[in-house]
Model the fold of this input.
Amino acid sequence: MADTHSIITPAIMYWGTPVVLIMTENEEGTANIGPISSAWWLGHRCVLGLASVSQTTINLMRTKQCVLNLPSDDMGHYINPIAKTTGAPDIPPVKQMLGYEYCKDKFARSGLTPRASDLVRPPRIAECPVQMEAELMGSTELMSDMPDRKGFLLALEMKILRTHVRKDLRLAGHTNRVDPDRWRPLIMSFQQFYGLTPQRSVESSLATIEEEKYRMLTRSDVVSQGGDMDRVGSEEMDSGIDERSMGTDSSK
Ligand SMILES: Cc1cc2nc3c(=O)[nH]c(=O)nc-3n(C[C@H](O)[C@H](O)[C@H](O)COP(=O)(O)O)c2cc1C
Done:
């Protein structure tokens, strides 16, 4: 069979991930919006990929708090005005090279609206359908094999403390589920914005797993995250998974 591929060395590896607008608090108490797309989720943890020179990173390291706001695919026009800006008054050389400018008030520049959070100091973004209040648990320096780049990029582990979701995105008849047919995340692929196509491409066999079975992993059966109903003891909770099947049985 003929080889249909050729070798390239892309300068960026932005294969397509959801955009996250990170709210953090500046030293003087004002709020900063940091748009990113290097984010992935496992259990109730999120790992963020951030440049260490960004104001968002500086604020996160100092305060350990943020709100992770997920915009929908029709919200790109809010992000463009703040896309090539930084909340850091001394613009780092790498951002100067990329044409970034300083922006003191990204809410004013973007047209987005702050809304008070419950558990952390930075506000949520009212227009975003999903808003997660979160706490920094730890960080790892990337590129430690390259002495002149070590620590320029960081992987930050965030713990989700509370999730706010726009009511029309909830799956009817369920307390704690999002309707994936309604949730339309904004995706960034190689610096361009996309949405998901409205139709499922193919039915997913992973989706045959009952969602509540994952709850034992996140421990949100024990540590309430403040949903609008008391989950403990509800029928949805009966995942049938115990510590033994998780391989975490400490009584052994
Ligand atoms: C859609 C989008 C996605 C981005 N993704 C990332 C990312 O994943 N990681 C990162 O460090 N910067 C990313 N950036 C660049 C940051 O937004 C940029 O560094 C910005 O200056 C951060 O703001 P701050 O310095 O006020 O924190 C992205 C920018 C945009 C517009």
